[in-house]
Amino acid sequence: MLITVTRSGGFAGVEKARELDTRGLRDAERWEELAHRAVAPRPDGFHYRITVDDEAIDLQDPYLSEDQRTLIQALMEGAA
User: Fold this and answer.
1) What is the pTM of this model?
2) Using CA atoms, how far apart are residues 68 and 62, in angstroms rounded to an integer?
C-alpha cells in the first residue's frame, strides 16, 4: 500500500509531501490499519466546503476551528 500525506499552507505557503510504501515493512499491518481509519468517512458528521472568492476548503465535523464553526452556523441558520 502506498500512503501519501501532503501538507500545504502556513505562512510560507510551502507544500510538503511524504510517502510510505508499506510493502515489505514488518509493521505494515499497523500502518495500513491506521491509514484506513484516517480516511474513513464519519457517517455521523457533516461535510462542508467553504468558498471565499476563488479559494475553497473542504472540512468535516467535528474537525472545525471555532471560526469555521461560527461562520458555518451563522450562514446555515440564516443570520446573514
Assistant:
1) 0.61
2) 11
